[in-house]
Design goal:
Length: 220
């Protein structure tokens, strides 16, 4: 793989289906602008270690940050309080039972330091298409018959690319993430792509690795 080139100009995408080499991303991880959110382009993006992230009033932005935040499924950290939650049978988990509702709820979550959501109508429609193709997956957390949390992402068969999660009650999204990690660990997945560092993800065992190492896991 090529070495990072800090002077490489930003790529502007058209209708042609391609992405530049991820080493061409700038120091923030921004790789390209433009293109579309068609299933073919999104599939190529995730297979190439790239993901879209942009505000509703901006053009489509494509990212491949360095370092990359990931969780090796076997490294999931479960606190004593969460172990009690897991043993309590307070929550139940389903998979792909209401993908559309999960992504809609993720779009509604208010996040610290963000005035709005990056999960625009365009983004929601794109991932709903990917779900119909069997690629975008959702995990739902229920308390009795009430949906109280969940997450969604792209399943590449050996890497799960997490996109967003939500919780309307304490520990629900943690429950979903832990159950996801346990399932993927049993299936032998290489890692969960968490994209960018957050203290919340770090507390659950996620860590930053060099982009070149991430790409080796993705292509392995």
């Amino acid at each position: 793989m090529k070495k990072d080139n800090p002077h490489k100009p930003l790529a502007f995408l058209t209708n042609e289906l391609w992405f530049p080499d991820v080493s061409d991303a700038n120091f923030e991880g921004l790789l390209a602008v433009g293109g579309d959110l068609s299933p073919k382009r999104l599939i190529l993006a995730y297979q190439s270690g790239i993901f879209p992230w942009f505000n509703e009033d901006s053009p489509i932005l494509w990212w491949c940050p360095n370092p990359r935040m990931v969780l090796f499924p076997g490294h999931i950290k479960i606190s004593k309080s969460m172990r009690k939650v897991l043993r309590s049978n307070r929550f139940t988990l389903t998979k792909n039972s209401c993908f559309d509702t999960v992504i809609e709820q993720c779009a509604l979550v208010k996040r610290q330091g963000q005035s709005g959501t990056w999960i625009s109508t365009e983004m929601k429609n794109a991932y709903k298409q990917l779900h119909k193709l069997g690629l975008a997956q959702s995990y739902e957390v229920w308390e009795e018959d009430q949906l109280v949390g969940g997450l969604y992402g792209m399943d590449l068969g050996h890497v799960f690319c997490g996109e967003s999660m939500f919780s309307t009650t304490s520990n629900a999204s943690k429950f979903a993430f832990i159950k996801l990690a346990e399932e993927l660990n049993q299936k032998g997945y290489h890692l969960i792509d968490c994209q960018l560092h957050t203290e919340h993800l770090e507390s659950l065992g996620a860590e930053e690795i060099p982009r070149v190492e991430f790409m080796e896991f993705l292509n392995g």
